[in-house]
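FORM 7B: Structural annotation worksheet

SECTION A. Query
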Amino acid sequence: MAPTLFYFNQIITPGVIKSKGRVKMIIFHLAELLEKENISQNKFARITDIRPNTINDIVNNKVQRIELRTLTKILSVITRWGYSLTDLIEYKA
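SECTION B. Predicted structure
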C-alpha cells in the first residue's frame, strides 16, 4: 500500500518524507469510514460527485494527487456523519 503525503497547498502527493532517518507519512482512512457507515465506494462517489476511480485510489492509498476541492467534497460529507479531518487522515511520524 503506497503511503500518501499531505501538503498544505493545492495538491496532495503520495510518497514518503524522510527526516533524519525517520519515515513520515500521511494515510487516508476513507475505507474505514465508509465501512462504518455501510456506504459503498460507488455510492460515496455519487454523493460527493467525485469519480469512482478517484475514490478507489483514496480508499487504497494509491492516489497520485488530490485537489483540495476533492478533499473538501469528502469532508463536507463525512462531517455530516460526525467525523472530522483527523478521522480521515492520519499523520505517522
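SECTION C. Observations
The helical segments are 30-36, 41-48, 52-59, 68-78, 85-88. The first strand starts at residue 11 and ends at 12.

SECTION D. Sign-off
Analyst initials: ____
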